[in-house]
Write a structure and sequence with these properties.
This protein has 482 residues and is of the alpha/beta class. It is built from 18 helices and 16 strands. The structure holds cobalamin and iron/sulfur cluster (SF4).
């Protein structure tokens, strides 16, 4: 079959922060392994807005660069919904494609549709099915089924629009959730177990890597950087995060890690084929649970040391994963930067996020990384529904103190004025709903702050950001053109 896989651009992401879409890379690799031909259309890489994307996807599209895409001749279109905020754009794309006469099956996948299939089928038309959760196996089966003229309705891990629409109760109605829970006996969705052996997957297709390597995201800090996924799943259960629920959609052990030789082979290939010298591990949490996690990290360190690839790397982990000996060892074999979800420096906030850590744990992790001379990026959630002015002051004082004391360490704070966002499938979504505090629709959940002063402070910061980000992007574009 001829397949087109599409990822959409997110207006909130700066071009220099865009990345390769590893999920589509995996799906493309699996499809090619099975003899299908695949084209990946990565809208962020080409800065394609939805109308341009739709034009590019249909014959008679815009002249010029986009005309080359012409996947009108494709037998199937797959669209990834990476972020919940992309749902309206995704549905606009589907609708434009259908209006332009596209008749191919359109399949959606990614975190948001895996949780929101009832709502999407109730509120929108035009797509044929949704792959739920981790989807390499589901996608391969779907292609085989369609190729053989079979009915996608029976493919494990897949829900068709008709089935989701039926059980959604129809337009304007609340879904009858119990009818369509994946994995439950007799449900119309047949559960697909998680792949227990990640080494069995082909390495992700790297079609878009050359484009990113010529842009700023692939050359961050002077390195030629590529993304690699070494493990899947996380033993944490932070209330704002959907990771546990996502892998929980399928039966099986959620945390899985590739063997060290398999990971090193991929890195070696990236080094040889693309002269990559830095790897961004995009694992949910690089450090797996307990001894197994530690052992896997040590095995990777041994493998990288033995191969002398000359490649640095960075990753994200929990503060309680930071240990002096292990992290020194990882630094010796190339670790340069650690992203830490610190989130807050008050216990009330850490408990609200169900981080299962203390303020002291945060401090301890940061001082270990500082002592080791590792660069750190801190994730902070300044605003949650119950944030107080005192908490804001404590967190701001912490940031000030951090920047003051870590002269030698390059500390960055990802989005310091960050407001907690509510995503489908998360414990936060359920608890705010139970408390009657969840507002807005699933395309953009919202809540009120309990403290009016905090609400005012956030609104002023957000207004500045609304002006600042487009301005920064425009200046960036001008700079790049110059
Ligand atoms: C890399 C990454 C990014 C990159 C995006 C680059 C990219 N193109 O991938 C960057 C750094 C830009 C980013 C930013 C953000 N991110 Co992010 N990010 C990730 C991360 C860590 C890895 C993505 C990845 O490579 N996954 C591995 C691949 C294999 O999985 P996958 O993409 O899900 O694809 C699989 C399935 O979903 C499915 N599938 C996916 N698409 C399709 C399509 C079809 C047709 C089919 C059949 C199947 C299918 O099959 C794939 C193979 O199994 C994920 C967490 C995660 N582990 O996925 C979070 C994640 C996607 N990010 C998330 C969030 C919240 C954000 C931010 C909003 C955070 C913030 N507050 O700033 C920002 C975005 C916007 C902003 N304002 O800046 C959430 C999204 C939640 C949601 N429901 O919307 C996630 C899920 C993390 C989490 N658990 O909370 N992120
Ligand atoms: S540690 Fe990270 S991946 Fe794990 S549950 Fe918390 S936010 Fe999600």
């Amino acid at each position: 079959m001829r397949i087109v896989l599409v990822s959409l651009m997110h207006a909130g992401i700066r071009p220099e922060d865009e990345e390769e879409h590893l999920g589509l890379g995996y799906l493309a690799a699996v499809a090619r392994r099975d003899g299908h031909s695949v084209e990946i259309i990565d809208a962020p890489a080409h800065r394609l807005t939805v109308p341009k994307l739709a034009a590019a996807l249909t014959v008679g599209g815009e002249p010029g660069a986009t005309r080359r895409l012409q996947p009108e001749r494709a037998d199937l279109i797959g669209i990834s919904v990476l972020f919940q905020e992309l749902i309206p754009d995704t549905m606009q794309l589907v609708s434009l494609l259908r209006r332009a006469g596209a008749r191919q099956p359109i399949v959606l996948g990614g975190h948001p549709p895996s949780f929101l299939y009832h709502e999407l089928a109730r509120d929108y038309e035009g797509f044929d099915c949704i792959a739920l959760g981790e989807a390499e196996g589901t996608f391969a089966d779907l292609l085989e089924t369609l190729d053989g003229g079979g009915d996608p309705a029976g493919v494990p891990g897949l829900v068709t629009w008709e089935a989701a629409r039926r059980s959604s109760g129809g337009p304007g109605r609340e879904p009858e959730l119990e009818q369509l829970e994946p994995g439950t006996g007799g449900s119309p969705i047949r559960a697909r177990p998680l792949n227990p052996d990640l080494d069995s997957l082909p390495f992700p297709a790297r079609d878009t890597l050359p484009t990113y390597l010529t842009g700023s995201s692939g050359r961050r800090g002077g390195y030629r950087t590529a993304s690699v996924l070494r493990s899947r799943g996380c033993y944490g259960n932070c209330s704002f995060c959907d990771t546990r629920a996502f892998y929980g959609l399928s039966p099986g052990q959620a945390w899985r890690v590739r063997s060290a030789p398999n990971v090193a082979d991929e890195i070696e290939q990236l080094r040889l084929d693309h002269q990559v010298d830095h790897i961004r591990f995009w694992d949910d949490n690089f450090m797996g649970p307990g001894d197994r996690g530690r052992q896997a990290a040590e095995e990777l360190a041994r493998e990288l040391e033995a191969r002398r690839l000359g490649v640095g790397f960075s990753f994200e982990c929990r503060v309680t994963d930071v240990e002096p000996d292990l992290f020194r060892r990882l630094k010796d074999v190339g670790l340069t930067r650690v992203f830490l979800g610190v989130e807050a420096m008050t216990q009330r906030q850490l408990d609200f996020h169900n981080k299962k850590v203390t303020v002291e744990d945060n401090r301890r992790a940061l001082s270990i990384l500082e002592a080791l001379g590792l660069d750190v990026t801190i994730g902070m959630i300044m605003f949650d529904p119950d944030t107080t002015v005192d908490e804001l002051n404590t967190n701001l004082a912490f940031l000030k103190e951090s920047f003051g004391s870590w002269g030698a360490v390059k500390t960055k704070v990802a989005q310091p004025w960050n407001r907690l966002t509510v995503y489908a499938g998360t414990p936060l979504e359920s608890s705010l709903r139970e408390q009657g505090r969840l507002k807005g629709s699933y395309t953009q959940y919202d809540y009120d702050f309990s403290d009016a002063t905090v609400a005012g402070l956030y609104a002023s910061g957000a207004a500045l950001r609304r002006v600042g980000l487009p301005l920064r992007n425009a200046l960036g574009r001008l700079k790049r053109r110059a």
